[in-house]
Amino acid sequence: MLYAEENNRNKTIAHLDLDTFFVSVERLQNSALEGKPVLVGGTDSRGVVASCSYEARRFGIHSAMPMRTALQLCPEAVVIKGDSSRYSKYSDIITEIIKEEVPLFEKTSIDEFYTDLTGMDKFFGCFKLASEIRDKIIRETGLPISFGLSTNKTVAKIATGEAKPNNKIEVSRGTEKPFLAPLSVKKIPMVGDKTTLRLSQMGVKRIHTLQEMPIELMDRAMGKTGVTIWKKANGIDNSPIVAYQERKSISLERTFQKDTIDVDKLRTLMIAMAENLAFQLRQGNKLTACLTVKIRYSDFNTYTLQKRIPYTSNDHSLIAITKELFEKLYNKRLLVRLVGVKCSHLVGGGHQINLFEDSEEVIRLYQAMDHIRNRFGINSIKRAKTMESRNLGGANPFNGKPSMILAHRRA
Fold this sequence. Notes:
13 helices; 411 residues; 20% strand; 38% helix; 13 strands; five-stranded antiparallel sheet; disordered C terminus; alpha+beta
């Protein structure tokens, strides 16, 4: 089998990553946090660390770690619940700066970007341009940011990791393999803890070892995944910059601080989720044709039930189906840990009035409600039933921006 694949050496890709983004934003608001171990994330017993400062990382703390474990490692850490709207605001500012400076970029998360600078070296110099973009971001936001520049996304991302904190690295054409060789295999994107353990059992701990192995061996050992890892280890990655990817679904979930059997609370939350998703669909000029309800019980068994429906973005339609599926799925004898609602099979287009169910008054009501929410926030108007429900978020998920996990909630 022929596996040889030439790297696209005509590309120049910069990967930009804001350093400890949530923590850095919090430090802009409170300079007393400078130099201290800071944890941003859930403050309850099931909370997780969304972001941690470098001072906290010295204690072995990392993102996605249970907050309880993090505080055992560093009891003196400062814990901040976080403010998702503030983080989104700064992310939007940085996005606009990048948009003004480069013709093509990909936003892969709230704090991470790829930019295609191919051809810029003829007029300006790619490293100089990337450096000036970084300087402008630091100057206009006060936030630290690092970047890596190379011939593809994989090497650029790894280079950014080596540049941190608040620095920059260029890996020029022809030096990709020597740059990667001494690094741990953990540095390769897509190589997690389980894959690292499997590679270690094969005697592979450094990227250099992967580079020396025949690709056929990785194919036999790990299939297509092994081939992809081998290519990345050798600096081969032809994946393009993707400016925008159409979303196929949107969803909301809530993990309870304490498992509950309060059926009224559960029903209220399900209605609030359906109402919220309907608003998001209308914001994106989308319709859904499939609704899914999800319940996870205290024993971690998870059940879902879905139903195909006529295309809609109306609150009353989605709420009715959500309630129907919940009643069919809910086991009243078990404590509930998590509930969720998902809209899928999305298509573009505004709602078509159902002559048998909708009225002009109902359509105008939704338009008025959406206008109020857009002006004063998603929680400015709600059904009486959902008044007590916590904020579920409501940013438009169809505007080309990646979704963000709120800092104070468990993913």
